[in-house]
Protein 1
Amino acid sequence: MPLDLTGISNRNEYFSSHYLAALIEGDLKDTLARWKETAEANPDSEAHRSPERRIATLYKPYFNLLNRYVVLRDPAERLAAQREFLPRLLDALGYVYQPSWRSIGPSGTPLAKCLRLPMLGEVTKSSGAPWLWIVEALPPADEPETDPLSLPVHSAQFDGDPAHHDPQLASPHPARDLAWDELVTRHIFSLDEAPRWIFLLSLGHVVLLDRTKWPEKRHLSFDCERRYGKPMKWAT
């Protein structure tokens, strides 16, 4: 049966059309079978449910939160509301929600000239080198479906940053008009030791960026509202 790709945008052919039409289902067959086998062997274990089923259980919490989000005008309140959902989504995907801040810049750049970046989590290689960075965009209340790549880092995301109280950590925040698209291009994927992958999350979207495909702006974008708007099944 064909995979259900509702709400998944293959931007600039991250995958070729032929791969999506004829090959991806076969490549995922063993993984999906393994998920099913593990879940059936542990029917009472939430931790052993397949990622697709764990994501599906967030259907009601997601729409309850979305209905509340669209009436919030205070950015700090929107950020707090969004962060009620994102940790649960990351957990369902198998990642750890661990907010932090990082100063980034070319090797040898003085800290005062580095750029301060809010993070939601990361995965590193065994060597400690970056592999995946998880970051966040805050959409406006009246347009939560806004493409997160078009949004800048919001000042509310730096509340609680220890750099506010420790001059030794001080680094400038990204400019208010610097969208994530440009931030990724100019300041993250250009690092001497850049992550291979970036997850950019918002209440409206999950965007997956691959450093090797980003020069052509090829990426995957998952529309959460559309994806949750029908039964969460990979196959129909």
Note: Residues 230-236 have pLDDT under 50 and may be disordered.
Protein 2
Amino acid sequence: MKIRFDNRYVAPLFITCILLVGHLFYGFLESYERTALAIGAAIVTEIVLGRIFFGKWLNLASAYITGISVGILIRSPAFWPYALCSVVSVMSKYVLRAKDRHLWNPSNFGICALLLLAPETVAVLSVQWGNFIWPMLVIWILGSIIIWRAKRFHISFTYVVSFFLFAFMRSWITGHPWRAEVAPITGPMYQLFVFFMVTDPKTTVRSKTWQCVVVFFVAFVEMLLRLNQVIYAPLYALFVVGPTAMLIENWLESRRPVTAQESPAA
């Protein structure tokens, strides 16, 4: 009997790999308990809202990715931000929608919401992979293979190239060493951002060309925010650019003439 592995579980396994490697070698988790709380809150919220809105039990892979992302990225001495961030993140999928699609990547929305509403209590992971390049290379190679299989590699590739382009531009404008401007992309936060947030199929425009254009603008807005000393610039850039692109796409589709093939049958 041939055993087939459900591709929906590839991303959760990969993000778990990031967590295990990062915490084993660099201890970047605040605590196991806080991460478990974030995951549990996301899963419970998904189960409850799935039953309320759709009347069925949903696959929990997405909720797990949201919860573990929150558990990795959020930094707080308290427990409640982990639970609240996961709940807000998952709820955003059900509440903030247009044309039956949610507008924000869930963890991006929840994290940005807490950073804006509780900046004295909540921060975001900012550690790097240290002076050893091999953990970063392993994660980037595995992540590239996974998103290649998912046909999303062009999005991550465009963002990374754009980031380097704008990093050198920032270095030229500010006079900072180029290595200092490039360094952030070597951190684990960027692994989650590049492989999960900007490539989220539910919150990206449909055209491959425009997917590349959108992430280019995400990198551009990130550069502008960094030049203005805005902390957590990539998260805020995606928070602004991603939903804007989705709404523009919806508006353009609404103005497209309906062809005979697309019109409902009489």
Note: The radius of gyration is 19 Å.
Protein 3
Amino acid sequence: MKTGLTGGIAIRNSNPSEIFLPAVAAVLLGIGIVFLSRWTLGKMPGIKVPDAVATGGLFGAVSGSTLAAALPGLDAAKIPYEAWTAALYPFMDIPALVTAIVVASVYLTKQGQASEKVEIWPIIKESLQSSAVTALLLGVALGILTKPEPVYESFFNPLFRGFLAVLMIIMGMEAAQRMNELRKVAQWFAIYAFFVPIIHGFLAFGLGLIIHKLTGFSIGGAVVLAVIAASSSDISGPPTLRAGIPSANPSAYIGASTAIGTPVAIAICIPLFIGIAEMMVGR
């Protein structure tokens, strides 16, 4: 609910006409990253598909801390960007998490009904009605249609920190119990987590440049789009995926994201794309 409210508030405070094409690009990237993980990481020897899909969901979702680290860098480089670009993150974050849950549900249902024809739409409908996705989408709706800032700041934000701390302890215990599952295939997650932030960033930067040519979207805005694509969720993603894909191993998707993905996004991707932007604007 808190994650949805955050996204809904950001969407409500953005300019609908200016944000339309960048938002469409963010949605496509969030969904595409999940399928990319499903058909790359999910095909590696010994990798369980739910683990690959959950990892893709986490890398398709967005890290607020990585985004927050990029904006001062753009300011320091004097590269202009639209004030609303930070509001792009829910357009990537939420579709990625929902897509991951749906894809994992479809896969698991097919595995359990190997000899029967599987109806896809009922699975999608059931996934969208799950507690995690329902709360997420309800939060988005409330953030857009109401002005929940007072209750957000006084109730949801502080409560979220406490619940997240408890959840991380629980997920840590689960990860420790399932560490043996990861040891044989950890190298694939490590390789994936190192390279995909850069790949995702370049895909997003390329889309940002196309939008720049079409609408005048700033080069700095393209950098923001690249950074949110390169980032991986460290707060909103884990609790959503744990609820939506309980069969996935937290030590796989959280380990890949936190231990490797986030450092790569901050230490490599942010300076890389700001540097490219500086060259493009002639600085």
Note: The chain is about 80% helix and 0% strand.
